[in-house]
């Protein structure tokens, strides 16, 4: 990985490619994870926030199985389109264990992805699961980036399916003037999602300019511009007080105390 990163830093000048290079080094840490969630040890383990039964298997606390009703095992609303009125013109609605408690310990989840005209499901990866993705309406340009920075891309039409391997960066762009729609399945109750641009420019607190200006080989005004375009966070929150020197001083104090 290290060698690949160095090559990428030398070869690439455009900012977008640097985004890939940096995120790839994050992604490599996740590749050691299991290919899917552990096998369930019981029929179901409907998640509860209140651990009154105090049983935890390999996910969240379980509702006492004696109290589980059919309603606990049913999720409604998957037919409702996501709101695509946003900067990307697309919305991925992930029905994972956080939305559907019955998925707890079962190792599966699903998503619906709605695209407005020319909408983009932005460049992202799922650290804990592979994905199988089916186009039900529309025509999408899709791409996958491998750990050696090779791009696999193609155009998918209604009825086509593709796989996005665990941890690899991928995206889908609607090529049509009309809405598009896809569904995706995952081998995890909680596949997770890291958007590449948010992972760099939308973190809280911010990744310090010292890091980003060096990584991208640009000055801090461009970094600030990228932040303002891509951050989902409240940019007006003042984090200018943070600096490497300050952090350095703090850790030095920790050592001497
Ligand atoms: C889309 O969102 C913007 C602001 O977020 C709002 O002004 C506009 O009315 C919305 N358009 C539709 C069609 O909902
Ligand atoms: C962003 O933070 C500022 C200052 O804390 C606050 O006044 C503003 O309402 C926040 N905006 C949003 C959209 O949360
Ligand atoms: C932001 O924080 C820094 C350091 O704490 C301070 O010097 C500066 O005045 C603050 N800026 C704003 C706009 O509040």
Automatic annotation (TrEMBL):
Domain Cupin type-1: 78-224
Transmembrane domains' residue ranges: 12-30
Disulfide bonds: 45-62
Protein name, UniProt field: Germin-like protein
Annotated residues for binding of oxalate: 121, 126, 131
Species assigned in the record: Spinacia oleracea (Spinach)
SMART domains registered for this protein in UniProt: Cupin_1
Subcellular compartments: Secreted, Extracellular space, Apoplast
InterPro entries: Cupin_1, Germin, Germin_Mn-BS, RmlC-like_jellyroll, RmlC_Cupin_sf
PANTHER family assigned: GERMIN-LIKE PROTEIN SUBFAMILY 3 MEMBER 3
Name of a matching Pfam family: Cupin_1
Entry keyword set: Apoplast, Disulfide bond, Manganese, Membrane, Metal-binding, Secreted, Transmembrane, Transmembrane helix
């Amino acid at each position: 990985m290290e060698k690949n990163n160095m090559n990428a830093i030398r070869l690439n000048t455009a900012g977008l490619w640097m985004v890939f290079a940096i995120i790839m080094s994050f992604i490599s840490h996740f590749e050691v994870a299991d290919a899917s969630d552990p096998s369930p040890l019981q029929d179901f383990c409907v998640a509860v926030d209140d651990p009154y039964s105090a049983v935890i298997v390999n996910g969240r606390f379980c509702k006492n199985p004696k109290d589980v009703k059919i309603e606990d095992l049913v999720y409604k609303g998957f037919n409702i389109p996501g709101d695509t009125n946003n900067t990307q013109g697309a919305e991925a609605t992930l029905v994972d264990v956080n939305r559907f408690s019955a998925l707890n310990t079962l190792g599966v989840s699903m998503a619906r992805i709605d695209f407005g005209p020319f909408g983009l499901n932005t460049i992202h990866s799922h650290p804990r699961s592979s994905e199988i993705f089916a186009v039900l309406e529309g025509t999408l340009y899709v791409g996958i980036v491998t750990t050696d920075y090779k791009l696999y891309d193609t155009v998918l039409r209604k009825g086509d399916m593709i796989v996005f391997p665990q941890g690899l960066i991928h995206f889908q762009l609607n090529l049509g003037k009309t809405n598009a729609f896809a569904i995706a399945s995952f081998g995890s109750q909680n596949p997770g999602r890291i958007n590449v641009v948010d992972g760099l420019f939308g973190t809280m607190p911010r990744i310090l300019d010292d890091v980003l200006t060096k990584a991208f080989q640009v000055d801090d005004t461009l970094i600030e511009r990228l932040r303002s375009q891509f951050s989902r966070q409240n940019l007006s929150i003042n984090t200018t007080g943070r600096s490497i020197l300050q952090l350095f001083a703090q850790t030095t104090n920790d050592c001497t105390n």
